[in-house]
Amino acid sequence: MTFKSIIDEIENNLNKILSELSIIDVKFSVEPAKPGFGDVSSNVSFLLAKQLKKSPKEISEMLSEKYLQCASTLVSKSEPHPSGYLNFYADWKKLNQLILSESNLPEFGDVDIGKNSTIVVEHTSVNPNKALHIGHIRNIIIGDTISRILKKANYNVNVLNYIDDSGLQVADIIVGFKHFGFEIEPPSGKKFDHYCGDDVYVKTTEKYEQDPSLEQIRKNVLKELEDGNSDTAQFADKITRRVLSNQLETCWNLGVSYDCLNFESQIIRSGLWNHIFEKLKEMHLIEFENDGKNAGCWVIRGEGKEEDKVIVRSNGTATYIAKDIPYAAWKLGLLDDPFHYEKYEKEQPNARVLWQTTLNESASKSQNFSGDKVITVIDSRQARLQKIITSLMGKFKSIPDAYVHLGYESVTLSSDTAKILGLETDGKQAQMSGRKGLYVNADSVYDLLKEKTIEETKKRHSEMSDSEIKMIAHNVSVATLRYEMIKQDLDKIIAFDLTKSLSLEGDTAPYIQYTHARASRILEKSGKAPSIDVDFSLLKEPSEIDLVKTIGLFDLQVRDAANNLSPKVISRYCHDLAVAFNSFYEKSKVLDLGDEQLENSRLCLVNSFKIVIEKALNLLGITAPDKM
Fold it and tell me: Helix, strand, coil: what percent of the chain each, to 5?
């Protein structure tokens, strides 16, 4: 039981009052109150004004009077506000006990939205021709955080990574290796994925610009890639697998893991497109164009002023969307699964089994990675394509929200950070482009964050061993990257700044982690094992009550984040929880009070904070060190 207990009690009692007044079907809200308006507020009076022909103020006064007659366990009093809101005050002695006792349980914060149904979350999906850059990291962290939140909301989550190993960007590095003389092995000390992106890809695309006739070589290579038996396709498979291995190492270092890798080349060769093409025709979801600029093509009609989308060209070749439609249908389990499965050759650091699709019939066939619902994390530039796929999947499955595109805006680098990382931008934010080589890879940002954190930690803790310092620096660096990628609304562009993101003040991961370390230090100094066998009535200072209340809101925040697919909700909650603890820390001494009962009660509160902030940060993929 959490703060939701008092909300449920108030909601039930208000419904009883309305029933006695013969009022039904009023969808009022009962929510945690803003400061100065009690502990819980309801807008019920406003919704009854028209029906009862009275002002909200008069109605709230009437309801408050009637509420006194209700059996109430957790409410000490109700109070009408002059504005018309109906406010309630908690019996904090009882609510303290409920919240702090429950906060020690492993399932604290769990909500049952998913009912153990299966949901697919697809994220990352980066072309295997280069290292992951800071822009890709937003996709990866959003997807991983959403997966963690949905698991907490009792969904069975399948996490997929779509490997686009047959597109133009892969063709470009194959052209570089096969036709422009690039060595297979990278220079000493350089990762293979960095080499492919920084050198082979960028310099190959430069050659196209210098000599447009080279485009024909590119087209020929792209065609050869689609033939899985060609020497070019076999060579490309070795190259892309090697790049993928490095990309996964970057993801794993950031605490991200997957259930299955799906390869585009296999989707093309599996025959899935033929099945879905016939289904599209049968359902009249595509039309054959007899004249105009799209004569001889199969098209999806555009909505409103949107242009028609060509799905099959006049020469019979399928366009890019033709790869995505069957894959989307496969994720929803709408097509027979043509794949077999084998374990990926490297083990993930958390020991989670990673499978990969294969067309090799000797491999296992027993895996199932489809779901009742699919969330695909792709940046907002793909919004129109995803809108088409979402619409088609809704018609196939007859469930409008079965397929969800979770879009997000891009990541730029602040001018100061770009300068630190070697990019000159004339004082402007750096917009990234892999094709032009204007990007900063994620490994470099992580390394720089780690280096700066090691320096700071050594200054603060000269007694620590190098291994301890490196572990703290790793946890802080990962936390910094992850937090900066999710604390903003998804529809806002992020301007990533190294210096600000490492600050121990303000809305940053290190600020929250440091607050956790502060709580850990208090518990360590106490020399006691915290207990819930305390006098909860002693916790009555405003800063104590505020901290208890914030702890008790955890499951409501999880519910909000899961329902709205919003990782920001949890990041904001972590910050609010840290702010509440620091306010308590500044105003309420915990140790050496000369009052053992009060000291034990406050230690119980400190321990509950520590437990819950760890749980909340874990949903963000962030580890909270005990020392910083």
Answer: 50, 10, 35
pLDDT in tens, 353-384: 999 999 999 888 889 999 999 999 999 989 98
- Structural tokens at position 180: 């422009």
The answer to whether the beta carbons of residues 496 and 486 sit under 8 Å apart is no
Residue with tokens 């760890």: 614
Q: What's the N-to-C CA distance of the chain in angstroms?
A: 33
pLDDT confidence tier of residue 498, bands split at 50, 70 and 90: confident
For the record, the structure tokens of 213 come out as 């006739």
Q: Per the structure block, which two tokens stand in for 614?
A: 């760890």
- Residue of 413 and 285 predicted with greater confidence: 285
The predicted structure's pLDDT at residue 433:
59
CA distances from 318 to 273, 297, 325 (A): 9, 10, 11
The answer on pLDDT for 440 being more than 80 is no
Residue 578, strand partner residues: none
Q: Do strands 340-343 and 355-358 pair parallel, antiparallel, or not at all (unpaired)?
A: antiparallel
Q: What is the mean pLDDT of residues 475-490?
A: 95
Is residue 401 within 8 A of residue 393, CB to CB? The reply is no
Amino acid residing at 81: H
Beta bridge partners of 332: none
Other Cβ atoms less than 10 A from the Cβ of 290: the count is 9
Which amino acid, one-letter code, is at 40? Answer: V
Cβ–Cβ < 8 Å for 90, 40: yes
CA separation for the pair 153, 134 (Å, rounded)? 29
**What are the tokens at 429?**
């934010």
Quote the CA–CA distance of 346 and 438 in Å, as a whole number: 31
Q: How far apart are CA 153 and CA 113, in angstroms?
A: 5
CATH superfamily of 3-90: Arginyl tRNA synthetase N-terminal domain (3.30.1360.70)
Q: Which residue has the tokens 């990533």?
A: 496
CATH number of the structural domain 118-270+338-371: 3.40.50.620
Instruction: Note the pTM of the prediction, 2 decimals.
Output: 0.93
**Whole-number Å distance between alpha carbons of 628 and 625:** 7
Contact between residue 449 and residue 510 where contact means Cβ atoms under 8 Å apart: no
Residue 82: φ, ψ to 5°: -55, -25
Domain residue ranges in the chain: 3-90, 118-270+338-371, 272-331, 415-502
Radius of gyration of the chain (CA): 28
Residue 347: which region, alpha, beta or left (left: phi > 0; alpha: psi -120 to 50)?
beta
Decide if 312 contacts 374 (C-beta within 8 A).
no
**How does residue 317 score in pLDDT terms, banded at 50, 70 and 90?**
confident
> What CA–CA distances, in Å, run from 95 to 2, 76, 538?
8, 11, 13
Q: What pLDDT sits at residue 495? A: 85
What is the rounded CA–CA span in Å between residue 198 and residue 240?
Answer: 15
